[in-house]
Structure formats: structure tokens, C-alpha cells
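ok so for the tutorial part 2 we go from a plain amino acid sequence to predicted C-alpha cells. step 1 is just haveing the sequence, like this:
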Amino acid sequence: MEFKGILHILYLITLQYACCYAENLAGVNWTEIGVAGDYANFLTKSQELYNELFVVRGYRNDLAPIYFRGNQNDSIPKFDVLISLQFIQLLGMNAQSQMASISMEIDYDYKDARLAWNPENYDGIERINVQSTSIWIPANGISNAQTLEVVYPDQFNTATIYANGTVSVSLQYYAETRCVMNVKDFPFDEQLCSIDMFNNAYDYQSIKQSGALFTKYKEGTIYDNGEWSFRNITVWYELFNGTGGVKYDFAIPRNTTFPLLGWFVIIDVGLVSLACVVLVTLPFEEGQKPEKPGIERSGVSLWLSVIVSWVYSRHFFIFFIFQVANLANFVVFFAHWD
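step 2 — the prediction. this is what the C-alpha cells look like for a chain of 338 residues:
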């Protein structure tokens, strides 16, 4: 009982502080510091609104606004979370670790009824922006990532709250996601990877998750790294062990800066190799058969004579030229391959 009494006293003190704070804001003369009339009124009303949402109502950002009951009430709609992939950049592919390094921007849109208000009571304010740490955010992380980091510090991440309680949060991630690589078709291989958004804290009976692709920006949403590129990015809903999630699938083919020249070099190398085999297997020419070593010739002189005779009889000089050209083709081919 004593503990409840202390909590009640603290709550009354908080309300008293909130009322005094609102009165002080209403008494601020913004024009004295050069603020225009409409903007001055907006500052006053927006701070009154913030005070109402986060102080007077006792909002807790560690409490989820999701309806959980033993018997699910069908008349109460599921908590709807829209997860939108707005930007994605491929930083690298590591065949040894089977990982893809990706930078991405993901938006979370949902409705928190505790943050709704009547715009008429606050001079027509339809939305406000607050730091994302001030509100509750769904914990829909990337489940198949070995490394997952929020790029920007908390003070740079903001959330938009609308009058009907809709919340929109945009987060920048760096992730190293698992991507099983098959390089049997190298250098024309294509990898199939995914980004899985799951959270075991929510079951599919209480929450509804859906996904979207690139709804914010008109252009500049997909970036490659030169060697690899994104293709066929799709989103779909997946149910796994009683938990629903959103999954983004995409293909990552290997790029070449000049595929036509690459095919030309491959064909050229094949023809040169075939020509070398044919030349080496040509029969001896008349008058160029190697002399049988006599008894009077032996040692180094004997073997040099045999080698020289074999070189001329087997067109070794032409064979050597072709092999040099073959090697040059490979050097050019791999020097220009990204």
C-alpha cells in the first residue's frame, strides 16, 4: 500500500509539472526573439501536443500496443506493420564466408492508438517529428544476418507521428546476410540471396506483417558495386513456426564491363589451342627427319642436335608463337574483368 501511495504522489507531481509547463509555454512571447506569429503559435501548440502525448498520458516506449489475449477476439483487428525496403546498396560478396554485405534503408509504418490526437485542439497540427528513441518501435530485425548495425546514431533517427496515431520510422542498416554461393558457372554465375524479417515475440494471430518495395524515392534506390548487381527483387510473406515474417528475395548476377570482348577472347583462346594441337601432330617433312645419333656423338652435343631437329620437324616455332598469343589473350581477359 505504501508503494502504491508513493506512485500516486509521483503521478500527481508529474501532472502538476505538466500543467505548469504548458502554462509557461503559453506565456512565452516568441515575437520578442524574432519568431513570426504563425510559427510562434505552432511552436507553442506542438510542445503542448508533445507534453500531452508523452507526459500527461504517461506514454511508455517499452510497452507494445499489441492486443494479446488467451482467446483471440476476431472483432479486434490484428496489429498491422508495413515493412518497406526503400534503398539497398550492395557493398560486397564473400564466397569464402558465404556472406553478402548490404547497406539498406527500411521503413516501419504502424498505428499506435496511444499517440493519436484531435488536430482541432492543437491549431490544426496533423503530424509531428520526434526522436525514434521516444516511441515504441516493432522489433522486426533481420533474422538471417550475421552482423546487423544501425548506421546513424539515435539522435539522428527521427519518427513521424500523424494525428490518427500512425507512426513512420526510417532506419538505416548495415548487414552481412547469409548468401549461399554457387560458383560453378564462374565467371557468369548468379547468386540467389534473401533478407528475412522475423521476430519470434509476435505470433501471426496478433500481428499482421506486410512488405513493400521502393515507395518513397522516385530514383536512386538500387546501387551495385561494379562486380555484382541486383536483379528481380521481390517481397513475400512467410509463415515459419507460427511466426509470420516478410522476406525479400533477389538475384545477384556477376557483372562484366565488356561481355562481347570477353566472349571473343574465350573463342580466340579455344581456336588458338586447337591450332596448337593440330600443328604439333603434323607429320615430319621430307629431309627434316632427325638424324640418328652416331657413336662418335654423345653427351650435350647429341641431345642439342636431337632437340634442334625435333623443333624444326614439329613446327615448334609456330607452336611457341601461338602459345604466347594464347597467354596474352588470358592476360588481357582477366585484366579487364570486374
